[in-house]
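ZP: hey, is the S-adenosyl-L-homocysteine complex queued? I don't see it on the tracker
AM: it wasn't, my bad. submitting now with these inputs:
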Amino acid sequence: MVQSQLRQRGIRDERVLAAMERVPRHEFVRADKQHEAYEDQPVAIEACQTLSQPYIVAAMLEVIAVRATDTVLEIGTGSGYQTALLAELAQKVYTIERHAALSTSAEERLLSLGYTSVTFVVGDGSLGLPQHAPYDAIVVSAAAPRVPESLVAQLAEGGRLIVPVGHADSQQLELVRKIDGKASATTLDGCRFVPLIGREGFPE
Ligand code: SAH
């Protein structure tokens, strides 16, 4: 997976590649989907949600350039796969999921794999998690109709936010950087994520 799907398609960040070598993706996929764990595609998980394709996860992590001293916020815990990668890359990870059952099983999975730097929260991540802000990096792994203002407000100076923005069935990745207190956005690749459902996302 790392060689043929990531290196060959241009992922260069050695810390991201090493993290993707280390995190056992099959542990985040249920028994009947095990054969799909390392395929070049998303994998269905519980609650009608999906574990993203390896390449898109790597591309998002590369673009937000997480440093070992960073505090990171993830919106959309899902299986916890990307959460584990963030725990490999950052000092502290906060992750929010709206489905309590997904959050609980992701938390159990990460603890059994030995990750102790992650705090799991159940709630509407479109509003961020102001009580622990600011964040050096914020990763949204669900699609929003526009960049959520609450998330931009919770970025630290020099902070990076990556979020898929667009319609329910097709989006583009937006990278927002905060420099001298001002946020500026860059539009990156097209993508397709499940919807971010919440106050600054799509209605239920
Ligand atoms: N990164 C995940 C992919 C999860 S799919 C993984 O590696 O498995 C996106 C997730 O976002 C889903 O689990 C969905 O329930 C969750 N989600 C959607 N809207 C949300 C919101 N407003 N707050 C928190 N989580 C949300």
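AM: back. Residues 45, 49-52, 75-76, 78-79, 81-82, 96-99, 102, 124-126, 141-142, 194, 196-198, 201 surround S-adenosyl-L-homocysteine (CB under 6 Å).
ZP: great, adding it to the tracker
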